[in-house]
Design brief:
This protein is α/β, with parallel strands linked by helices. Helix content is 34%, strand content 21%. A hairpin with a 2-residue loop joins β15 and β16.
């Protein structure tokens, strides 16, 4: 079948694509930025990219009409500005206008379980998107999922942060809310299983795991799997705003996402029983087993995708290419170089920098800068990195975004997503003379930007020099 896949660079899309390819389908991936997507790892001609923005109807003319089915995996809850629900609704309306011009026989949508009378803004938006998609001519198969558990998923990483960092938790009362977590492996099985299954056309199905747990039980069972002793007390006095700040400062989530998650966590997410698991012969994975599977992937360095890599900020609205060209005028630079006796090892260190590997020198200063960034509403250092030894364009790397990464060219370029009075780039290169070149570039915004640069100069001297020594030595 010829499949159109939206959200191909997202958490779910990256997991689903290899399965579709393995099943022999031809997949066309809709992306806003082709530099964030590498098709070379797939068989020639089986995976192609089409550049389009679902919020810009003028770009949808590039999408093919001769498709058999489409996946709608677009999500905007973590966007930093604007009303995500209106954005999601408009995106769905634009997509349906396009779908009505195609030969598609099925549209598959992944939403959220919405069985309660009072829904959070997030779940209401998910339901509104489904309603918009059903207004089109193409039959919709809607899968409504609860909390998704898998390496790199937002829920998994937030729970992991809480359990591993806090031996004792004074938590808000929404920890007593019930849900039915589902393994990412099961989610992908459902998404791929309903493709072309006519009995699912025009219907919706709740998909969920075999366990019904409160969020408190999820935290305690996670701790049990990790062999950690944890104590949790819930209090009724923590407001939604305080709860959001609590999640934001303790975990790697952004504040907009934390705020929307807290609102959603006040609503029970319990699915309605249906025949789909039996029809697709899917064995539902218990919560504890899902955690063990996730950590197996982490320990083997096989995490395919992470929610942290979604670039839902205005900075990257026009794509990564807007920031590849480092400005030469009106900037401050700190350029250092050092010859290395082992270019291969130095390159490995460059591509493994950040995350749990640290920044090789004065990590406590990097940690302080990350904490300072969180205080002022930035992303901080807690995002880490998806893979311990390799990065790709678009990946989050602590408070940086990977703009360019090519081991053959021996070059890595990072763009700062921290709170700054200006813009910053950090570039690593190894030239043909085995010299490691490290360049920090800062384009200041007004007087404050210039004062910031001069205030940081003493720290830059020690940090960047020490970091380069560790890379080249």
């Amino acid at each position: 079948m010829k499949i159109l896949l939206t959200g191909a660079t997202g958490y779910i899309g990256r997991r689903l694509l290899p399965v579709l390819v393995e099943n022999g389908h031809e997949v066309l991936c809709v992306v806003r930025d082709e530099q964030r997507f590498d098709t070379s790892q797939y068989p020639a001609g089986q995976v192609t990219t089409v550049k389009a923005d679902l919020m810009d109807t003028g770009t949808l003319g590039a999408l093919p009409k001769d498709i058999d089915a489409a996946y709608y995996l677009v999500h905007s809850m973590s966007m930093s500005t604007g009303d995500f629900s209106e954005t999601e609704k408009t995106s769905a309306q634009n997509f349906i206008q396009y779908m009505d011009t195609t030969s598609a026989r099925q549209l598959i949508y992944l939403g959220g379980i919405t069985n309660e009378q009072q829904l959070s803004k997030h779940l209401s938006s998910r339901k509104a998107v489904e309603d918009e998609l059903r207004k089109g001519k193409v039959p919709v198969t809607a899968l409504r999922a609860g909390i998704i558990v898998g390496s790199g998923s937002a829920s998994f990483e937030i729970i992991r942060d809480l359990v591993e960092k806090l031996p004792v938790m004074i938590a808000p009362r929404w920890l007593n809310t019930r849900c039915q977590p589902i393994s990412i492996r099961n989610v992908i099985e459902f998404l791929s299983g309903v493709l072309g299954l006519e009995v699912t056309y025009g219907r919706h199905f709740d998909i969920y795991g075999p366990d019904t747990l409160t969020y408190k039980q999820m935290l305690l069972q996670f701790a049990e799997v990790r062999k950690l002793k944890r104590r949790i007390w819930t209090v009724p006095v923590m407001t939604p705003r305080l709860s959001s700040y609590w999640l934001y400062f303790v975990t790697s989530t952004s504040y907009p996402l934390a705020k929307n998650l807290v609102e959603s966590m006040k609503v029970d997410v319990i699915g309605k029983k249906n025949e789909l698991p039996d029809k697709l012969n899917i064995s539902l994975i218990p919560y504890k087993e899902a955690i063990k599977i996730a950590f197996d992937k982490i320990e083997q360095n096989l995490v395919l995708s992470s929610w942290k890599d979604s670039a839902n900020t205005d900075i990257f609205a026009k794509g990564l290419s807007e920031h590849i060209q480092i400005p030469q005028f009106g900037v401050f630079t700190d350029k250092q170089s050092q010859r290395t006796s082992d270019p291969g090892k130095a390159l490995e260190r460059i591509f493994a920098i950040g995350g749990r590997n640290g920044w090789y020198y004065a990590n406590w200063l990097w940690d302080f800068r990350g904490f300072f960034d969180r205080v002022f509403g930035g992303v901080g250092l807690r995002r880490g990195r998806r893979n311990a030894s390799d990065v790709s364009p678009g990946d989050a790397l602590d408070f940086w975004r990977v703009i360019y990464a090519d081991k053959k060219e021996k070059r890595l370029l990072l763009y700062a997503e921290m709170k700054l009075p200006g813009e910053a780039w950090l570039e690593f290169k190894i030239d043909k003379n085995s010299c490691v070149q490290q360049t920090a570039t800062f384009r200041p915004l007004g007087l404050l930007g210039r004062l910031y640069w001069y205030a940081m100069l003493p720290f830059h001297f020690f940090i960047f020099k020490g970091m380069l020594n560790k890379i080249a030595s």
